[in-house]
Amino acid sequence: MRREVGLLCVLSLLPLLTALGCGGGSTSHRASTPAVPAASSGITLTSTIPDGARVTGAVRWEGKVVTDGGAAVDKVEFLIDGKVRWTEKNPPYVFDDDAGILPTWVLTPGAHRLSVRATTVDGKTAQMVASVDVAAQSVTTPARVGTYTRRVGPADRKRTAPYRLAALGAFGDPTPLGQWRLVVAADGVMVLTDPDGGASYEPFTAAPRSFTLYGPAVWLQKDPEPYLFCEPERRSDYAVSGSGRSLTIVPRQHVCADRDTVVGGTWTRVG
Fold first, then answer.
1. Which of 87, 114, 161, 206 is most buried by its number of CB atoms within 10 A?
2. In this structure, how many other beta carbons lie within 10 angstroms of the beta carbon of residue 164?
3. Taking a C-beta distance cutoff of 8 angstroms, is the pair 215, 227 a contact?
4. What letter would DSSP give residue 78?
């Protein structure tokens, strides 16, 4: 379903890996390096990803802003290698929305610059840059990579109805019925496309018999009103079986009914 969010989603995508990448790690746990703005800027800015960190897996990336005299913050921008990839207008200032993460496996292994830039309503700015090393990662198995389709019907909605609750992030109309398309990519981003063409980008990691989905990568979505299954959409694990042209996915947790309505079922490989 579509949901307007009160922030800017940058449309350009990062270069995705042609090699396989891994999830499940975290950044170094040492204290983050404070910003070094001009003393007159009146802004103190820190990042939860510290300078010099070696990063791996799904990482929460938050910018923390303190202004002299409590001056209002207009926006906080998150830059990857000098390009703005996410703009947040409301605290907490988190990359990819409040429940979002940075899936580091979509970055090429090696050196990257992860910057946070804050701007106040009166035009003052401060920026901090963390030079990090992204670990080489393995996120999926080649046998699962491909394009699949399946028809989502009333029985799928009925199956997930008991936990389609506002307390679990359900909102708006139920998941559309009809033919869905699933792309499982080697870079660790799963794309689910509804019958009307709306697409959700879901970072994932995989083992031979499981998938873990980490919630929507809204910053990768092309639509300015991104497709979200739940808000927030929590991390969830799925059992996977099948071979050849068949792929069966079964939810192990019940945390987002509309996502499970689509993902949970048997898919047929078409590419």
1. 114
2. 20
3. no
4. E
Place of tokens 């092309």: 222
Fold of 22-134: Immunoglobulin-like (2.60.40)
CATH number of 142-269: 2.40.128
Distance CA 20, CA 237 (A): 20
Per DSSP (E only), the strands in 5-72 are 8-9, 43-47, 54-55, 58-59, 62-67
pLDDT in tens, 225-265: 778 999 999 999 999 999 879 999 999 999 999 999 999 99
Return the percentage of the chain with pLDDT > 90, whole number.
Answer: 75
Query: How many whole angstroms separate alpha carbon 89 and alpha carbon 208?
Result: 40
Give the integer Cα–Cα distance in Å for 224 and 231: 16
Q: Which amino acid is at 262?
A: V
How many residues appear in the chain?
271
Indicate the residue type of 199: A
Tell me how far apart the alpha carbons of residues 182 and 86 are, in angstroms, rounded to a whole number.
25
Q: Where are the beta strands (DSSP E) in 110-264?
A: 110-120, 125-134, 146-152, 178-184, 189-193, 199-207, 210-213, 236-241, 246-251
What's the pTM value of the predicted model, to 2 decimals?
A: 0.81
Residue 107's beta-bridge partner residues?
Answer: none
Domain ranges of the chain: 22-134, 142-269
